[in-house]
Amino acid sequence: CPCVPCRGAMMDNRFATALVIACVLSLISTIYMAASIGTDFWYEYHTLSPAENVSEAGRSIWEEFVSKDADEKTYTDALFRCNGTVGLWRRCITVPKNSHWYSPPETDMTTNCISFSLSDQFVEKYIEPGNHNSGTDLNRTYLWRLQFLLPFVSIGLMCFGALIGLCACACRSLYPAIATGVLHFLAGLCTLGLVGCYVAGIELLHRKLPLPEDVRGEFGWSFCLACVSAPLQFMAAALFIWAARTNRKEFTLLKAYRVA
């Protein structure tokens, strides 16, 4: 029948288009995840008068902020007072370039950051931040650890899925695309879990350390990138699985038709 080759060509084009779109979505979501992990704007604090706050306390704020012994309450208070931003790996505050006690207040500000060490990522959180005798807050402790681990698991799953996809291209088969789709779906769940853990962690922290009246907090664009990455991963997963399953079903029907 002359229609059979035409029908097969139409199916091939349709599946190829779905795979190309899925690959583009996967690439964009990977870029978004990498950018969100590497930037420091997951949560931002906006203070009405950071220059005056820093001038009153001199260099003590910065010295306490960068100190290895700085606990959660110490650096959180600095974030409140100095237009701080928090990422998964670093925390930053905005201070005047010259903040010596004998200098007049400046309006020329600079942003200084300090990285969380690997031990900081797994340190215990306390029921009363800064009070080591108050006991361990298990909820915040494990939320903090998960928000550190989940993005790397997500990116790892997508990279492994991409490797399987390359093998599928080499074998000229759509069947391995099902595994790629499942891995992208799991990556989307990890990203969604990351977003949920981060939001819950911030809310629990602010219950322990409420924002001052002149400080406003909001989620930043790094957090938004992670939020956008999750649905992109789910859409890529759906396209990969749909293309592989539908192609397999159509191939089976076509083979049965030819035998008949």
From TrEMBL:
Signal sequence annotation: none
Main location, first listed in the record: membrane
Segments crossing the lipid bilayer: 15-35, 148-170, 182-201, 221-244
Location within or outside the cell: Membrane
Membrane topology: Multi-pass membrane protein
Keyword Hydrolase part of the UniProt annotation: no
Superkingdom, taxonomy of origin: Eukaryota
Gene Ontology, cellular component aspect: membrane
Pfam families the record matches: Claudin_2 (PF13903)
Keywords: Membrane, Transmembrane, Transmembrane helix
Membrane in keyword set: yes
Identification of the protein by name: CLDN1 protein
Species in which this protein is naturally found: Donacobius atricapilla
